[in-house]
Please model this.
Amino acid sequence: MSFDSRCPHGGFKGLLDKSLARIGLSKSEQKKVNREEELVDLAVVIINEQGFAGLSLEKLTAKSCYSKGTIYNHFSSKEDCLSALCIRAISSILDLFKRALIFDGSSREKAVAVHYAYQLYARLQPTLFMAVLSSKAPGVREKTSIERMGVMDKFEFEINNFSDALFRNAVADGSLILAEHMSIETLSFSNWAMSFGTNVLATSAKEATAVNRLDPNTLLLQNINLLHDGMNWHPLSKDWDYQNTWRRVEREIFAEDIQSLSI
Amino acid sequence: MSFDSRCPHGGFKGLLDKSLARIGLSKSEQKKVNREEELVDLAVVIINEQGFAGLSLEKLTAKSCYSKGTIYNHFSSKEDCLSALCIRAISSILDLFKRALIFDGSSREKAVAVHYAYQLYARLQPTLFMAVLSSKAPGVREKTSIERMGVMDKFEFEINNFSDALFRNAVADGSLILAEHMSIETLSFSNWAMSFGTNVLATSAKEATAVNRLDPNTLLLQNINLLHDGMNWHPLSKDWDYQNTWRRVEREIFAEDIQSLSI
DNA sequence: ACCTGAACACCGTTCAAGT
DNA sequence: ACCTGAACACCGTTCAAGT
Model:
């Protein structure tokens, strides 16, 4: 093993320190946050090399320049480390969501842009995306520290708020009329469930016959079109070419990200 | 620890042997199948007592009357054992699905009955249901034996066929008209994705704010109503009381199963 | 106040010897 | 042909000693 890759300090470190200082962290707290970033990066490398089953805090210790004690100072267990990857993923997904919002279109088109962003992340960072799924498994949740669990809940709450806002805007601009017994929360949740279910099944069951037989690129769009039509969210898919919206989102918002995929 | 519970042979054993013999297994193969059933039961007990994180083949060995070698003869790893629980779950779910089909109603109502069955299983056997989720995590899949992976694929294929049949029937009886660019497979997959996504998020995020704020009982029905309305599957939810269908399914098909929940 | 690595317990996995 | 359990490697986790 080459030791060159160990302890890759420096680079943007000074920059990072400053931006963290701005949000009110002490020097030692900054150091800890930076180190955790570093360790999460290393964990991703190990998973890419040896699979999720190959990740252990033992190996993470060996690959880093810290001792076991320090590693356990960050992660209370291997599963806690996995949850840290999950939080990294959710946080990045939220950033992509916010970028998707600037798409110039109807509220339903904006929702399509957000779903595009979700699926894009699954393609850009398959390992981190799968970490989200892994962290939903009870065995992982059980061993995640309560502090980190709190952070996860906080991010989940933010994602929910974000999703709710999409539907509130739709109701506000008149393109969506709330049926009886339907709340913003209900629609927002169904939207999330469909997206999550589609992406997980599409990613995890790719090899199996079930998903194989479908075109993964348009799969998510078709599913959410069905759902949004069911909500009677205008314009309906029969009156608007959302396939075209999907392509426009790709071109107008996420062109560089897509480029990095083909390199 | 009491040793009374160890090696609970007997009971329906003779009966089981005979039914297995009918499908063409030798005596020793029968024995192995029976033992695996027993071990899966024991694994569920351990998980119920100590959580998913508490399961190990070490403990399974201790709780059973077999040696480590024999346990590893059944399960190539702890994760392989988890996948065995997953297969047990899928197989039971398929049985419930078949029972749901006998519900007397329109093709869309039959689909509602099938979703009812899915959600019922999640309530009847939360541990086994969560095992399905666990087995979707990459770390578990990676350590599942190829033979068991094959069995899982076979069951997934059966579930798919079952779901496809629901939609084929709907097209056949004229209540569902396939839109352009929509295939039976697409609709079937979206149906599965919605159900899976809803049940997983409802089960795993129960504590979190997101799902808390919704009524879990009607959540799944609302979500699939939106989806089926989006497919334009008649009768639409505005023209038919599917809440009532849901209650009828509960009463007419699954009354005893629900009873066992409240005991 | 934080870091280290030795120490130990538990688990996973194999396999030579036994029936 | 199948089962056993000793043996060992790897991992998780703790904590007294060090800086």
